[in-house]
Amino acid sequence: MMALLSQTTVGNENLEKWVLVGQGGFGNVFKARHKDLGFDVAIKILRDGVCSFLPEERALFEEAAHMEKASCEYVLRFHGFYQGCPPCFRSPLQQKGIVMDFMERGSVQSLLEDPCSPLPWPLVFRLIHQVALGMNFLHTRRLMHHDLKPSNVLLTGDLNAKLADFGLCRVSASASHENRDTTKKLGGSYKYMPPEAFETSYQPVRAFDIYSYGILLWSILTGKEPYPVADHALVALKIPLGDRPPWQDIDQQKAEGLKELVDLMRKCWDQDPSKRPTFKECLKITEYVFLKHKTGVHGAVNQVLTRLESPTRNQHQNSFCLLSTPDQPKLDDSVDGSSSKQDSVSVPTKIQSTADKANFIDEHRAELIQVVSEVMAIIEELGDMVHGEAYSEIKALLTNTRKMRELYDRTLRSGGVKVKAAFFDALKKHHPGIVERLGKFVLDSKCCTH
Questions:
Q1: Which own/partner contact pairs does 44-50 have at CB distance under 8 Å and 24+ positions apart?
Q2: DSSP-assigned letter for residue 76
Q3: Spatial CA neighbour of 139 closest among 213, 219, 220
Q4: Which residues contact 387 (CB under 8 A, 6 or more apart)?
Q5: What is the pTM of this model?
Q6: Distance of alpha carbon 391 from alpha carbon 407, whole angstroms
């Protein structure tokens, strides 16, 4: 793999206008302008200080190799292997990463989280078909995605879908040709895992992806998250017993071809892996439905883009979505040498005591639930103050509003002054602008009473 990537090395001399767009357990994702190519790319970089030949680096090489092998219109494109010192890192150590397409419209998950959903049917059917095309391509290359879910289906500027996040990708196996590589841990998101995957002796096969596609179909068709309040233990118990998301409420008369897609969805999540269709078989149905609505796609895309670009819409979400829970302090939003947002924030001096901070959180509960987007990053800051069960349930929720409401009800309300004060400190770190704006409002309100 080193030889494969050595011919496509990208360094700092090729990149400019770095901006942090996400963080995760392995490190960070940045957007930067590729000087030679003339367009923006995404750079996925290992966390600061990771050295050569550690598992993280091997996984990064494997992910890049899988992306290069699976290069097609419906899979995120690999542009090279990054090596250098990103301008935001203080460490002089060389960092390593992969350079890939930057997807400006986020993911299917962020699209489904939009409060103005549901999506127009022509766009829904195109997304469903494009995901099937991408997955079929992977399977023809004997690759298995192993983590198919809405957040791993990214969107181009005109809302075309590309598969992303190959950190769990592996060479696939059929039911008669098992993958005996036991060094790889079974991964993926538990709500999209098939019933057989919860068995300790399970060996992954391509039917895993088919099941995940069935659950993804349900999520796109309904605009909802599967099992929104179920934790891992409950899902692991119920799915092998035959439980699935409720499909009976889907009105199959709303659009031509919807009935065929519901039937396909149910076949994909069949309890018996051998009875699930292949992606080649799925394509016969998804293409049939898509072609019936193809003439309406242009209007549907324009409708959604107009909504997304509306000046009245809250656009606090970042556009590139490959990552989940941050595990380290947030870096500057701009890393071209400009000062941090935190440096420019002046929180009113009267909000200093633990009691003042707790009162601030209580007074602005309703607005905080609506505007806080870095919920999981703040929860990481709270650490053991958030019970493990509450953490799992909050993380599983689809929207930040629901995450915040659950965090307040499960932790902040019962945790008392100390926990609310800790939340205030984390909020100040991750959302300094919100604290500054609401803090000034507190002072102004008090001044008006005298």
A1: 44/97, 44/98, 44/100, 44/322, 45/82, 45/86, 45/95, 45/96, 45/97, 46/95, 46/96, 46/97, 47/328, 48/89, 48/91, 48/93, 48/95, 49/91, 49/93, 50/95, 50/96
A2: P
A3: 213
A4: 410, 411
A5: 0.64
A6: 8
Compute the distance between CA of residue 333 and CA of residue 70 in angstroms, rounded to an integer.
32
Running DSSP on this structure, what letter comes out for residue 85? -
Reported as a pLDDT band with limits 50, 70 and 90, residue 272 is very high
> Which of 231, 234, 236 lies closest to 389 in space, CA to CA?
231
Q: Residue with structure tokens 């309100």?
A: 445
- Under 8 Å CB-to-CB from 246, ≥6 apart: which residues? none
Active-site residue flag, 101: no
CB-based contact 416:364 (threshold 8 Å): no
pLDDT tens per residue, range 400-427: 888 888 888 888 877 788 888 899 999 8
- Which is it for the CA torsion 65, 71, 74, 78, positive or negative? positive
Q: Cα-flanking dihedrals φ and ψ of residue 347, to 5°?
A: -75, 135
Please state, in angstroms and rounded to a whole number, the distance separating the CA atoms of residues 231 and 394.
Answer: 9
Query: Using an 8 Å Cβ cutoff, are 14 and 6 in contact?
Result: no
CA distance 108 to 158: 13
| DSSP β-ladder status, 78-84 and 9-10 | parallel
Cβ–Cβ under 8 Å, residues 361 and 412: yes
Q: What DSSP string runs through 288-329? A: HHHHHHGGGHHHHHHHHHHHHT-TTS---S-S--------SP
**Which one is catalytic: 101, 147, 270, 332?**
147
DSSP 31-65: EEEETTTTEEEEEEEEPTTPPTTSHHHHHHHHHHH
Determine the residue type at 147.
D
- How many Cα atoms sit within 13 Å of 205 on the Cβ side? 16
pLDDT at 214: 97
CA 193 to chain CA centroid, Å, is 17
What does the alpha-carbon distance between residue 161 and residue 105 come to, in Å, rounded to a whole number? 10
Digit-coded pLDDT (tens) for 12-58: 888 888 887 776 555 678 888 988 888 888 888 876 544 444 555 56
Q: Kindly report, residue by residue over 337-363, the tens digit of the pLDDT.
A: 333 333 333 334 456 788 888 888 888
Question: What is the C-alpha separation between 206 and 194, in angstroms, rounded?
Answer: 11
The CA-based dihedral angle spanning residues 395, 399, 405, 409, taken in that order and rounded to the nearest 10 degrees: -30
Q: What amino acid is encoded at 48 in this protein?
A: D
